[in-house]
Design a protein that fits this description.
Strand content: 35-45%
Strand order of the largest sheet: 35-34-38-42-45-46
Structural class: mainly beta
Number of helices: 11
Distance between the termini: 78 Å
Mean pLDDT: 93
Shape: elongated
Length: 1135
């Protein structure tokens, strides 16, 4: 958990452990033997008893070896300072009088905490370096005879000392990390109540009274007018710090202004106390915060009841030899801990209550003086460290960093990619990485350094890893571990925590791997995605969706659809950007059908709760239900939805049931996928996850999206557009292996193409980076002729009521016929593009834009040996003016798909040939499947299935006023839904077809659904289906049916049930009237709807003999995959 107390640490001079470009260990020391972690929280000499070592599981405590790799907070830059694997820690064994390390003996080692004071030689001052991921450091114990590193002795220099030191530098930081003002960034603050003095007790003692204390204070205030802080020593005011006002109404700007001030003051005593007071200057709504107060002073070298760390910057000088004198009542041991991994015991002498030692101090050295009566004790971890060896790994194709809770799910993802295309993965946990790359201390930089090791090794062989998957949720609060905080994989946070537009989190940090790169600077070297799992349920949902997306069973024409949603306001900026994106998509991927949903083209409704766009909400939900490859939103938003009018809300997201047609969501808006947000209870510090709307899209078990290229923080529209544009430029081309591009590659290349700037860091991929976008890239579907006239010559005009025949073929990317392809192709014939004028709902000027022409025909036909043809009748409802239409294709077989388009066709005019037809189409309605019987039971989200037939075909163009295919519930025609886009003709014919539409029922009981459709000559038909909704009830069987009944020699059994889209084990048992079981029939049946498939009985008993005439009882017992059971019984007469 976060540090919530005063922190006392002392100076440290960090050595450089590794030069840039240095190689890595070929194997980790953790690869064999028994290992136990021990924890420390502050710098000092620690005691580890012989008995404790035995209790750790080491039979020979004398062979103990200590290792560590604690250098504090690792650099966020690739600057060559990163340590590599664990290294030995020198210690001293106190063996007692017998000279043998045994019972009663102990060893001493020097340990560091995670936070550091570092001496800056240029400014000749001390700077505090906080660790942002842990307040606890770790060391590792193992057993290896003769392998221990022991502390060596350092004799006094031969030359006489030329300096004396009886005082040294002491430092103290007051910092209470309680609140993160904007729930972002790595800085935390302490709120300071106005007019109340906050006491600061540095725990200084024995200060030199004529030496000034220097201090540095950093404070913040949120106030509309100037405010101030008063610094005090005792009762005396020593400094007043003024903080400038902020613009409270700017919600994304400066939340609180910061002022940093530095000064010095003589101490009022040898152990002074200080205070900090916030002055709101009469503004009762003003709030003040303290970041830190740093103190540096001079103190006499006096040892009392605690270990004394000695750092005297005045002793360091060329050729300096210093005699240090420490006053104390007992002789002291002194170690040089300048190199903390290998302390050296200084030669000392004790006389007259002074322990003295001499050392060469041509550079600043750090010592610790201690007595064996005041030793620190480490905390021994109960669970041993399992053997591991990340350093021996060869670079894989993909790295999966997974919390241990999700390792099974990580393995499933790895298997999916290995099976699909041979992508090899390595799966590691954060703790394994920490053990080898940060001495067991949680640190996001350690994860980056591990990935960098594999990346640099891969560069040497020409095959660096391409993908990084982070499997686990994250939190802006990085110190509290799970399960008390969903911080399964740590987050990198920007430094800024007080300006909304400058504070952000970015997983890109893990992929900036070249020398000198780091923080948010550089170009991505590896594609990165995160699956924000907070538990095994959410992990399972995402993995199942990935598996389904990769399965060829989900192939369909939805892959040819792009949905572009644009916000209103801002001088039509968002719609203008969307228009450029639509044009780019048309250039890059001509077969894409673009569904434009621009808010300002719809009627805006004003009510007491604000403005809304109910028709936009309906259009978006309908598009999700119908399916699309990409759902792209441009405009305003936040973590709870899209647009001020909330056209996408969390309730909408959770209602989506499009599991077989999962789009990639691109949301060029603010904060929609703020995955790292949590709620922290200020009273007890408990952390609760907050799930953003973007995460809900990914975590919806029945639909939503397969991945999101989305934002985590406030972003700007111009760079948003640039990145969105570059996504399109990269999404629709084939990868080097000839298959579709992977999502991680798409966004990585888009970010690189977007150039410098921080805005792109706010975008991340929530999803599997190695998953390929379901865009067909292999070959294309080609139009050969229209009405038997080659398209290379003049093409025939598509006129209203004319019969049109189209022929074509499928070809490889090379242009050769794909003669081994047999399957089906769906063709969509489109009328001319038409203009839409927006309504200027929020003022400003209307805007005109083009939308895809109305659908003239949508149908499927068979492909045999790469060839196909189909016919259709052009509906009466077309735009009779002549202009350019369009054909788009989607073809599939059992293993692959492809698409294509043809735009050199003319649509317009009226055919001279007449068609006599005055009857409307035949319409049959069902729920989920054709087994449904009117009046049957459904749950609250059945799927309406409509089957159509008419000799002239069905009019789904939407061009004629009032001639749409519409459906409505319970005679409420005012809320009718337009279903034109869902209709598709049956394979090989234009006279029949079907559509499916998910229906959401809010009230239990009896309902009706009605549907009206028109044929191509505009003859209408209305059909109605009755049903009963029972929501989330107990599993049961209803409407038992046996037919024929009476039966002569065979019969079929069926029943209604309320578990659609499931597998059910059904047992039919035939009983005599005396209760004897004569026949059992067991089948496992798929239940796509609310009616069980017919189960056949041949009229025989279990022995094969025919049953005699008479009355029999039959019983049906059903069991779902979830273990739910239901049964029902009926009677049958055998004649």
């Amino acid at each position: 958990m976060r540090l919530k107390c005063l922190l006392f640490t002392l100076p440290l001079i960090l050595p450089v452990l590794q030069a840039s470009g240095q190689g890595y260990s070929s194997a980790s020391v953790l690869n064999k033997g028994r290992w136990v972690k021990i924890a420390v929280t502050e710098p000092g000499v620690y005691r580890l008893d012989w008995s404790q070592i035995r209790d750790m599981g080491f039979n020979d405590p004398a062979s103990l070896v200590l290792y560590g790799n604690n250098t504090g907070q690792l650099s966020f830059y690739n600057d060559g300072s990163a340590p590599d694997d664990l290294r030995k820690i020198a210690f001293k064994a106190e063996k007692g009088s017998d000279g043998i390390f045994n019972e009663g003996d102990y060893l001493l080692f020097y340990g560091e905490g995670t936070h550091r004071w570092i001496y800056n030689r240029d400014s000749r001052s001390y700077e505090f370096k906080r660790h942002h991921y842990s307040d606890t450091a770790y060391y590792f114990a193992t057993s290896l005879a003769g392998g221990a590193a022991t502390i060596t002795a350092e004799s006094s220099p031969a030359q006489p000392y030329n300096r004396s030191s009886s005082s040294h530098d002491v430092t103290f930081r007051h910092e209470n990390e309680v609140v993160n003002l904007i729930r972002s960034g790595r800085e935390w603050y302490q709120q300071v109540a106005p007019g109340v003095e906050n006491n600061i007790t540095p725990r200084f003692s024995n200060l030199v009274l004529n030496e000034k204390i220097t201090y540095r204070v950093r404070v913040l205030a949120r106030s509309e007018n100037s405010s101030s802080f008063t610094m005090k020593q005792g009762a005396a005011v020593i400094k007043t710090v003024t903080v400038a006002p902020v613009n409270i109404s700017d919600i994304n700007g400066v939340y609180a202004n910061i002022t940093t001030a530095a000064d010095s003051v003589l101490p009022s005593s040898t152990s002074p106390a200080f205070g900090l007071v916030f002055n709101n200057n009469g503004n009762l709504s003003a709030t003040g915060y303290a970041d830190y107060v740093d103190y540096t002073a001079r103190a006499h070298l006096v040892y009392s009841d605690r270990q004394l760390i000695i750092s005297d910057s005045r002793s360091a000088a060329p050729s300096a030899v210093t005699r240090f004198s420490v006053t104390g009542s007992v002789p002291l041991q002194v170690w040089d801990v300048t190199e903390p991994f290998a302390p050296r015991a200084m030669e000392t002498d004790f006389s007259g209550g002074i322990t003295a030692f001499t050392a060469a101090t041509d550079s600043l050295r750090r010592f610790i003086a201690f007595s064996t009566q005041n030793l620190l004790r480490p905390v021994i971890m109960k669970t041993p460290v399992a053997n591991q060896d990340l350093h021996s790994l060869a670079p894989p194709d993909m790295i999966i960093v997974s919390d241990p809770l999700f390792l099974d799910h990580a393995a499933r993802i790895s298997d999916l990619h290995l099976t699909d295309d041979g992508t090899a993965s390595v799966i590691v946990t954060p703790e394994q990485i920490y053990n080898e790359f940060s001495g067991g201390i949680p640190d996001a930089a350690a994860i980056r350094n591990f990935i960098r090791m594999l990346y640099r090794r891969g560069l040497e062989t020409g095959s660096p890893p391409g993908y990084l998957l982070l499997l686990g949720d994250g939190s802006y609060e990085n110190k509290t571990p799970p399960p008390r905080n969903p911080s399964f994989i740590p987050t990198w946070q920007s430094v800024n925590s007080h300006v909304g537009v400058l504070s952000f989190t970015s997983d890109d940090f893990y992929g900036l791997l070249d020398d000198g790169e780091g923080e948010a600077d550089g170009y991505l070297d590896i594609a990165i995605g995160r699956l924000p799992a907070a538990d095994t349920t959410s992990a399972g949902i995402m993995v199942r969706k990935i598996a389904s997306y990769m399965n060829t069973s989900t192939m369909g024409p939805w892959r040819n659809m792009l949905c572009l949603v644009a916000d209103d306001e801002d001088a039509n900026l968002h719609m203008s950007d969307a228009e450029i994106l639509a044009a780019t998509a048309a250039d890059e991927a001509p077969p894409l059908n673009v569904d434009k949903i621009y808010l300002d083209a719809f009627r805006q409704v004003t009510s007491v709760s604000g403005n809304s766009y109910p028709d936009v909400v309906k259009a978006i939900n309908n598009r999700i239900a119908a399916g699309c490859l990409i759902f792209n939103y441009v405009g305003h938003g936040n973590e709870s939805g899209l647009a001020h009018e909330r056209v996408v809300r969390t309730d909408d997201i959770n209602s989506w049931k499009n599991s077989a047609m999962l789009p990639l969501f691109i949301t060029a808006t603010c904060e929609f996928s703020r995955f790292d947000d949590v709620e922290i209870n200020p009273a007890n510090g408990s952390v609760a996850a907050r799930t953003s709307a973007g995460e809900m899209v990914l975590l919806n078990p029945d639909g939503g999206g397969i991945a999101l290229m989305s934002t985590t923080r406030v972003v700007y529209s111009a760079p948003n557009f640039t990145l969105n544009y570059n996504i399109y430029k990269n999404a629709f081309t084939a990868a080097p292996d000839g298959r579709a591009r992977r999502m991680g590659d798409i966004i990585r290349q888009a970010k690189i193409s977007s150039g410098p700037g921080m805005n792109k860091r706010n975008f991340l991929l929530l999803g599997d980076p190695a998953l390929r976008l379901a865009w067909p890239v292999k070959g294309q579907v080609v139009t050969d002729s229209i009405n038997r006239v080659s398209v290379e010559n003049a093409t025939d005009t598509l006129k209203a009521l004319s019969l049109v025949t189209v022929s074509g073929h499928l070809e490889e990317s090379s242009g050769s016929l794909t003669d081994d392809f047999s399957g089906e192709v769906e063709a969509v014939i489109l009328d001319k593009a038409r203009n839409i004028n927006t309504l200027a709902n929020d003022g400003g000027s209307p805007m005109s834009y083009k939308v895809t022409g109305s659908t003239i025909f949508r149908g499927k036909t068979s492909v045999k040996n790469g060839l196909f043809n189909f016919s259709f009748i052009v509906p009466l409802d077309i735009n009779y003016t002549f202009g350019q239409g369009m054909i788009t294709y989607y073809a599939r077989n059992e293993t692959e798909d492809m698409n294509g388009s043809f735009s050199d066709i003319i649509v317009g005019g009226f055919s001279d040939s007449g068609i006599e037809d005055t009857e409307g189409p035949e319409i049959r309605l069902f729920m989920n499947d054709t087994l449904f019987i009117g009046g049957g039971i459904t749950d609250d989200s059945p799927t309406l299935l409509a089957l159509f037939e008419d000799e002239s075909g069905i009019n789904a163009s939407g061009s004629g006023i009032g001639h749409d295919i519409i459906a409505w519930l319970d005679d409420n025609m005012s809320d009718a839904v337009v279903l034109n886009s869902l209709y598709s003709a049956d394979i090989g014919v234009h006279t029949s077809g079907s559509l499916k539409y998910p229906v959401f029922i809010t009230e239990r009981g009896e309902h009706t659904v009605s549907l009206r459709a028109w044929d191509n000559l505009n003859n209408p038909t209305v059909a109605t289906l009755s049903f009963v909704m029972e929501s989330s009830g107990k599993f049961r069987l209803t409407d038992l049916l046996c037919y024929p009944n009476p039966a002569t020699d065979e019969a079929w059994f069926t029943a209604g049930q309320n578990r659609p889209e499931s597998e059910i084990d059904i047992t039919i048992t035939i009983y005599s009237t005396g209760g004897n079981a004569l026949k059992r029939i067991r089948e496992r049946v798929p239940s796509t709807g609310y009616q069980l498939p017919d189960i056949y009985w041949d009229g025989c008993d279990d022995n094969g003999g025919r049953v005699s005439r008479g009355l029999y009882i039959w019983r049906a017992d059903a069991v779902t995959d979830e273990g739910e059971r239901a049964s029902a019984s009926g009677k049958i007469i055998i004649l």
